[in-house]
Design brief:
Strand content: 25-35%
Structural class: alpha+beta
Number of strands: 20
Number of helices: 7
Largest sheet: 8 strands, mixed
Helix content: 10-25%
Radius of gyration: 21 Å
Length: 366
């Protein structure tokens, strides 16, 4: 069996890994580079139970388990570790520590307040997303997968006009038995070839700092008062390599042609630094390792698209994971491999079927 995966992000890499482990011949087609978009520039935060009570619960719990297994079983180091997660409030204009509910790590501002715990080392963890994605792709290649840098332009069909027979990549035909669309927000381009619901890109800015201070394994979700009627909610993730990733500033901008030309918003780094330094003073003068931005793939109902595409035998989709792409990538890749090889997945994917929105009339015509 031959499968082509369109997209070299974390979903494509995990799908390639689990398929290649099943003995499937896999080719990944990636326009820019492995982990070049959100898969390389996100926070890499993992949570066991934050999706409980939603359709994502089983997927997230299975994926959290797989993250731990992969980190233990594989030789690659992608910065996986368990950590405690805290909710913190801070203000640039006043001391709010009196409203705290307990002690904070010593690298957090003494004027900040602990609002409460959000997770423990049993329920929250992290990875370095670029390193994780690249390692998964490398392990897929070690198992026989191939990566092609190029643009998927259209699908090749069998004589019946519906069944997928391959992908046209920069004018060259690549034949296969199944195609997986996993291009993040750029999966919207495949709506010209397949009956897919809308996938949008939500832009997020982030900064990676390298402070001199030693910072422990705690993830912080914070609410920061910068001035009158000005609030930001930076998410602060110290990493094992000594850097600190901070995000929390989004914007609505048109999706560019590819990830290589995505730039941070003007002034975003300064806003992020000011907010983050209010919580973690060591970030005020810390070296900036990276100023970056990426587009997260989102759908109209907030749930990912995972499964076979109705009316196009041999076509599958795995995208639209929003902020939970890194978390849910392993279980998504495992499910896609099971669907293609076995015809069904162990996890119930009913809530993620692409036709759920096609039937409601919200899908553009192919």
């Amino acid at each position: 069996m031959q499968v082509i995966i369109c997209g070299g992000g974390v979903i494509g890499a995990c799908s390639a890994y689990f398929l290649a482990r099943r003995g499937v011949s896999v080719t990944v087609v990636e326009k820019t580079g492995v982990a070049s978009a959100a898969s390389g520039k996100s926070g890499g935060f993992l949570a066991l139970d934050w999706n409980d009570g939603s359709p994502l619960a089983a997927l997230a719990r299975r994926s959290f388990e797989l993250h731990g297994q992969l980190a233990e079983q594989c030789a690659h180091d992608w910065g996986y570790r368990r950590l405690d997660t805290l909710s913190v409030a801070a203000s640039a204009t006043r001391d709010v520590s009196e409203f705290g509910r307990g002690p904070l790590p010593d690298w957090v501002s003494p004027c900040a307040a602990l609002q409460g715990p959000l997770g423990t080392s049993q329920t929250t963890a992290q990875v370095h997303p670029a390193q994780f994605t690249q390692a998964m792709m490398q392990m897929a290649q070690d198992a026989g997968a191939t990566v092609i840098i190029g643009s998927a332009r259209s699908l090749i069909r069998h004589a019946d006009g519906d069944t997928v027979a391959g992908v046209l990549v920069d004018g060259q035909a690549h034949h296969c038995d199944a195609v997986v669309i996993a291009m993040g927000p750029w999966s919207a381009l495949a709506a010209a070839w397949l009956p897919l619901p809308a996938v949008h890109g939500l832009k997020g800015n982030s900064v990676v700092f390298r402070p001199d201070a030693q910072i422990s394994a705690h993830a912080l979700f914070s609410e920061v008062e910068l001035g009158q009627r000005q609030m930001l909610s930076p998410e602060i993730y110290p990493r094992p390599d000594g850097t600190v990733y901070v995000c929390g500033l989004s914007s609505q901008q048109p999706l560019p042609e590819n990830s290589a030309i995505v730039l941070p918003d003007d002034g975003a780094a300064d806003q992020i630094r000011n907010a983050a330094a209010t919580v973690v003073p060591a970030l005020k003068s810390a070296e900036i390792v990276a100023e970056q931005a990426c587009y997260r793939p989102v759908t109209n109902d907030g749930l990912p698209l995972i499964g076979a595409i109705a009316g196009a035998p041999g076509a599958y989709v795995a995208t639209g994971h929003s902020v939970w792409g890194i978390l849910n990538a392993p279980a998504t890749g495992e499910a896609i491999a099971e669907l293609i090889v076995d015809g069904q997945s162990a996890i119930d994917l009913t809530a993620f079927r692409p036709e759920r929105m096609v039937k409601s009339g919200r899908c553009p015509s192919p």
